[in-house]
Amino acid sequence: MTNSQNLICVTCPRGCSLTISYDDQDQITITGNQCKRGAAYAKAELSDPRRMIASTVRIRGGIHKMLPISTNAPFPKGKIMNLMAFLKSVEISAPVKMGDILIENVLNTGIAMVASRNMEKID
Amino acid sequence: MLTVHAYDVIVIGSGPAGLAAAVSAKKNGVNSVLVIDRDVEPGGILLQCVHSGFGLETFGEDLPGPSYAQRYILEAESQKINLLMDTMVLDITSDFVVTVSNETIGVQRLQAKAIVLAMGCRERSRAQIRIPGTRPAGVYTAGTAQRWVNVEGLMPGKNFVILGSGDIGMIMARRLSLEGARVNRVVEIMPYLNGLSRNYVQCLQDYDIPLFLNHTINKILGKKRVEAVEVVRVDQNRKVQPETAEIIPCDTLLLSVGLIPENELTRKIGVSMDPITGGAIVDNCFETSIPGIFVAGNVVHVYDLVDYVSQDGTTAGKYAASFIQCNWNSNRRKIPVIVEEPLRYVVPQKICPDTLRESAIRLLMRVSYPMEYPVQVSLFTDQKEILNKTYPYVRPGEMVSIQIPKSAYDLIMASQEVRLKVLRKE
Amino acid sequence: MDSYDVVIIGAGVVGCLTARFLSRYQLRILVIEKESDVGAGTSSANSALIHAGYDPLPGTLKAALNVRGNEMWDQLADELDFDFERCGDYVAAIGEDEFQQLQILKRQGEQNGVPGLKILSVDEIRKRIPNINPEVSGALFAPTAGICDTFAVTIAAAENAQMNGVMFRFDTCFESFLVEKHRIVGIRTDRGDIRCQWVINAAGLYADEVMHQAGSHPEFMIHPRRGEYCVFDPACFQIDTVLFPVPSEKGKGVLFFKTTHGNTIVGPTSEFVDCKEDKAVSVTGLRYLEEQMQRLIPGADLRWTIASFSGLRASGNAICTNSDVDYSGDFLIESDKTVKGLIHCAGIESPGLSASPAIAERICLLLEQSGFEMIEKPYWNPRRKRRPCFRHLTNEERNELIAQDPRYGRIVCRCEMVTEGEIAAEIHAPIPARTYDAIKRRTWCGTGRCQGGFDMIRVVEILTRELNLSSEKISKNGPGSEFIFSETKNQRSGQC
Q1: Domain-embedded: residue C247
Q2: Per CATH, the architecture of B1-122+259-331 is what?
Q3: How many domains does chain A have?
Q4: Which residue of A95, B119, B343, C385 has the smallest Cβ count within 10 Å?
Q5: C15: closest CA among C52, C41, C36?
Q6: Domain of A100?
Q7: Where exactly does CATH 2.60.40 map onto chain B?
Q8: Which domain holds residue C140?
Q9: Would an 8 Å CB–CB cutoff place C492 in contact with chain A?
Q10: Residue C432: how many CA atoms within 13 Å on its side-chain side?
Q11: Which tens digits make up the pLDDT trace of C395-421?
Q12: Is the pLDDT of residue A118 over 60?
C-alpha cells in the first residue's frame, strides 16, 4: 500500500504541484516536478522545511529609515519568528552596498543576513 | 519663456521597464538618454518589494526586489544615463516636448527625439470596487501599506483583513505577519486564487492565514478608524448572499484588487489604447500608434514577472534608438494578432513580420478563466497552425507566453494576420 | 476662565459665515467645533449648489432666505475669493405629464421673487444638453442658480473671521449652558467652561440637542437624512451644467451637477437614518442612483465614477412661522424664548448653503434687535485672498512661485496636480489644516483617479514634518482616525 502527499513547490514562480509517494519500505518517489529543484524542495520540506526570508532593519544616515535585507540561504521555518524578534535589535549605519553581509551566522544557523541594495550615506 | 533642453531619448519612469529601456537605448548607440521619475531615487516599486522571487529568468538567481532594481541602477549609472528624480511630468506632446516640474529646475520643457513611456501602474482603489460603508482611516491599498512598512518603517495597523488574493495581497499578508501584526484572513471574490500558488503556500499557509474564496467585503464599519468589515459569500455570478454575512473585527482593510496601467499621459498625447489591457496598442517593437512614442512595462499591460518587463523594456529601448537613428520605416508592414476566447488579450496586438529576420517575437496572453487541465496554445497564420505549446493548466493570474521563432519568417510574411487559440488537450 | 461676547457652536458654513459677519463689530467672538476642522459636518458633503429659489414653498423662511441669500453670493465670492459660478440650472420634464409641473415651479419661483425664470422648449433643452433623455418634454431654466466649492466658502469665511479677530477652538464639544437668572452666562464644553453673553446655536445635525439643553422646543427634532453621491471621472463623463428632475414629494430628486473642480457628480439619495454620524454609502443607495440617473441621462454609468460619498441633511420639523403656510420642515431661526442670550439656527437643510449668508445676516439682525450693543470696527477687512493653486497657473507664474518657494515645484498629487508648497501653505494658514482630510478639502489633493494611492504617504510625511509631530499622531480627520499605529521593528510591536 502506498501513501501520498501533495505539495506545491515554492522554488520558482511556476509553482509545480508535487506528489510525494511512499511505498511499503518508506521509499519516497516525487512526481509532478518540472525541474530538479522541485525534488530537492519536496525532500527538504519533509525533513527540514526552510524559506528565504526578507525583511528590513533600521539604518542610520541613509535616504530611508529602513534598509531591506534578506537571508543568503533558505532559513529554518521554525526559527523565523525568532529571527524577526532578533532583527528588532539591529541597527546598521550607511553606507551599505548590496550583498554586504550585515549579520553573520544569525541565531547560529550558519546563515547570513545581507543587504538587498546600496544605500549611500547622506548628510 | 521656459528653457528647453534637448535629449535624444526621454524615458518616463525609472522602474524596471524604464531603466531597461534607457540602458538598451544607450547600448544601441543613442547619445543622450534622460530618465525622469517622480520618486526621489530610481528603481520604482521594486524598491518596496523587499521579498525575493525576482530575476530567475534574467539572472538565474532568486533576488529581492531592491537587488533586482539595484543591478539595473548600477548599469544605468555605468552607461552614464541622466536621471532626473523627484520630478513630475506634467505634459507630453506628440512632437516630443516633455514638460516637467521639480523643486530645483521648476517647470521646464524638454525636447526629445523619441520617448519611452514606462510609468507602470497604480492600484485599484476602494472607489473602483465600490465597497459600501463608512469612510474611516484604515482602508489602504496593499502597495501603500507596503511602502509604509518596508520603506518608511511604519505600521499602518495591527489587525488586518486583506481583500484580494493577488500576489501583492498575499505577500503583504506574510510581511505584516512577520512584523507582528495579525492578518485575520484573505478574502477573494473569485472561486480561484488570483496570484501564484507558491505565494499561497509561503505567504498564507506558512502563517496560518485562512483564504476565503467566493467571498467579498460587503461593508466597512467604523466612524474614525475601521472597526470591522462585513464579509459575505458570493454565488457563482458573484452576487452577494446577504444571509452569509459575518462581521469580522479588524482595524485595517488592505485592498489588493488589481492594477491599472497608469496611462493619463499616454491618453493625453493621443495614443490609441486597448480597452482590455488598459494600455496602448503596440507592435512587437513596443511602438504606439504615434511614431516615436514607445511604451514599456506595466504601462502596456500588467505583467506578472519583472523579468519580462525588463526584456520588453530592452526591446522598446532598442527600437527607440532605431527610430532616432533614421534606420526606421514608420510605414513598415504590421499584421494584427488576434486572440479567441478564452484568451482575453494579447500583447503585442500587432507584429512587424520584418523584425522576425533579427529576432524571435514573444506574445504574452491572459485567459479569462482558469482551465485546470492540460491545454494547447496554438498559433495560426491565414493558412494553418504553425506552432503550439502545451501547458499543464492555465490561469488568469499567470501569463501565457508563446514565442514566434525566426524560422517562421516566411510563413508570417505571407500571412495577413496571426491568430491564437487555446484548446483542451485530449 | 475664558470670556467672550459671543460663542458660536459649530464651524459649518452657517457658523463660519455668522462669525465672519459678526467680526465687523467690536465683539470678542469664539467658534467652537467638535471636529478637527471647519465644515466637517453637513457642510462637508452636499450638492454645493446656490439655488435660485423656485423650489421652497412661498411664504416659508426657506423661500425668503434662499432668494435673499442667492443675491448675496457675487459679493461674497468677490470679497472672500472663492470659486462661484452663476451657471444657472435646469429642471427637465421627462414625458408630457411632467411638463405641467414646470409651470407650477415657475409660478412658485416668481412668487418667491426669483428673477429670469424661463421655460425652454424641447428643441432648446436638447440643444443645450444633447445627451438628455430623448423623451424630454421641456425644461425650466433658472439663470441665477450657481455652483460653488462649499469647503472653500467655509474655509474662506473662517479665515476672514480669524483675520478680523475671531477665535476658533476645534475638537471641543458643547455640553451644556451656564445660566444665571434666565440669562446665558456661558457654556460648558468637554474642554472646560467658557464665559459669554451670547451663544449662537449653529450646531447643524445637533442643533436640536443644543436647543433642548436650554429647555426650548422639546418637540423640535432633527432627523438626519442621508444623501449619497458619486463622482465621475472627468475623462469618462462630464456635464457642463446643473440638471434636476422634476421634484417630487421626496424632494428635489437625483440631479447631475458640475463642480468648480471640473468633476460631474450625481446624487443625492434621500434616506432617513437613525445615527447623526452615519455617513455610510450603501448598496441600495448606489442602486437607487443608478436607476434614477438613467431618467435624465440614459446611458450614464456608475462604472465611470472615481469616488462615492454621503452627507447628512439636518432635516428638522419646525413649523413655518407664517401661519398662512402649512409647512413643517422650515428653518428655525430665532432668539430663544426661555433664556436670554441665545439664538438658534436649526433645521438648516437645503437650501441651507444658498441661504447661509442670509442666515448670518439674520442672526446679526436678531442680535441687534435684542438690544445687544454692536459697534462697527473702524478697521474691519471684508476681504481675504486665496493662496496660489499650482494647477490653475501658467507655467511662467508657476516658475515665479517656485523661485520664491521651491516646494511649489514638487508635485505630491499627480491626478490633481497639487504641490508640496500648497500643502505646506495650508498647514500654516490662518485656520491650519492639520489632518489629511483638511488638506484634501483645501487643495483637492487625493481626490482624483488614484484616490490617494500616490499622495497619501507623502501628505502624512509632510504633516509629520510641518507639524513637528510623530507619524502616529497624523490622522485622517482628527483624534481616533490616525493612519499609523507604530514604527516597525519597535520592541513593543508584535508578540514575538
Answers
A1: yes
A2: 3-Layer(bba) Sandwich (3.50)
A3: 2
A4: C385
A5: C41
A6: 54-115
A7: 334-426
A8: 86-146+224-308
A9: no
A10: 11
A11: 999 999 999 999 999 999 988 899 999
A12: yes
ω into residue B348 within 30 of 0, thus cis?
A: yes
**Same domain? C193 vs C321:** yes
Composition of chain C by helix, strand, coil, percent to 5: 35, 25, 40
Examine residue C489 and state whether it is found in any structural domain, yes or no.
no
Question: Smallest Cβ distance to A56: which of B62, B153, B305?
Answer: B153
Class of domain B125-257: alpha beta
Q: CATH fold of B334-426, please?
A: Immunoglobulin-like (2.60.40)
A17-34 residue pLDDT tens? 888 888 777 788 888 888
For an interface test with A, the pick among C488, C492, C495 (most A C-beta atoms closer than 10 Å) comes out as C488
For chain A, the first-to-last Cα distance in angstroms comes to 69
Q: Which amino acid is at C11?
A: A
In a domain, A121, yes or no: no
pLDDT given for residue B2 in this prediction: 54
Return the CATH number at C205. 3.50.50.60
Q: Which of A13, A66, A80 sits opposite B150 (nearest CB)?
A: A66
Of residues B3 and B168, which shows the higher confidence score? B168
Query: C 452-491 residues with CB below 8 A of A?
Result: 488-491
Residue A91 lies in a domain: yes
Whether a cis peptide bond, with omega within 30° of 0, leads into C268 is yes
Of the candidates B52, B153, B202, the beta carbon closest to that of A70 is on: B52
Probe site for chain B from C229, C419, C488 (most B CB atoms < 10 A): C488
Q: Is B157 on the interface with C (CB under 8 A)?
A: yes
C67 has pLDDT over 80 = yes
Asked whether residue A120 is assigned to any structural domain, the reply reads no
Q: List every span in chain B annotated with CATH 3.50.50.60.
A: 1-122+259-331, 125-257
| C263 and C411 belong to one structural domain | no
C339 and C198 within one domain: yes
For residue B149, give the chain C residue with the closest CA.
C488
Chain A hits for C496, CB-CB cut-off 8 Å, are 81-82, 84-85
Does A81 contact chain C (CB < 8 Å)? yes
Whether C180 is in a domain gets the answer yes
The answer on A62 and A87 residing in a single domain is yes
pLDDT category of residue C494 using cuts at 50, 70 and 90: very low
Q: Does A53 touch chain B (CB under 8 A)?
A: yes
pLDDT over 50 (residue C496): no
Which residues partner with B388 through β-bridges?
Answer: B378
Q: Does B248 touch chain C (CB under 8 A)?
A: no
Neighbours of A123 (CB within 10 A): 3
Half-sphere exposure of B247 (CA within 13 A, CB side): 8
pLDDT at B31 over 90: yes
Min distance A55 CA to chain B CA atoms (Å):
7
Whether C51 is a known active-site residue: answer yes
Given a contact cutoff of 8 angstroms between Cβ atoms, the answer to whether B66 and A68 are in contact is: yes
Q: In angstroms, rounded to a whole number, what is the distance separating the alpha carbons of residues C258 and A116?
A: 49
What kind and span of H or E run contains C178? strand C174-180
**Same domain flag for A7 and A35:** yes
- Domain total of chain C: 3
Q: Has residue C463 been placed in a domain?
A: yes
Contact status of C394 with chain B (Cβ, < 8 Å): no
Residue A30: the pLDDT is: 86
Distance from chain centroid for Cα A1: 35
Res B123: pLDDT: 92
What does DSSP say about strands B159-163 and B252-255: parallel, antiparallel, or unpaired?
A: parallel
Which chain C positions have a beta carbon within 8 Å of B155's beta carbon? 484-488, 490, 493
What is d(CA A56, CA A67) in angstroms, rounded to the nearest whole number? 5
Contacts of C489 in chain A (CB under 8 A): 56-58, 66, 87-88
**Residue of A55, A65, A99 lying closest to B50 (CB–CB):** A55
| Cβ contacts of B73 on chain A, cutoff 8 Å | 118
User: pLDDT digits over B39-87, tens only?
Assistant: 999 999 999 999 998 998 888 888 999 999 999 999 999 999 999 999 9
pLDDT-above-70 percentage for chain C: 99
Q: Are residues C140 and C249 in the same domain?
A: yes
Q: Inter-chain contact A8–B200, Cβ cutoff 8 Å?
A: yes
Select the residue of B40, B43, B50 nearest A56 (Cβ to Cβ).
B50
Separation in Å, CA of B106 to nearest CA in chain C: 5
pLDDT at B362 over 90: yes
Cβ–Cβ below 8 Å for B64 and A8: no
Alpha-carbon B239 to chain mean position: 28
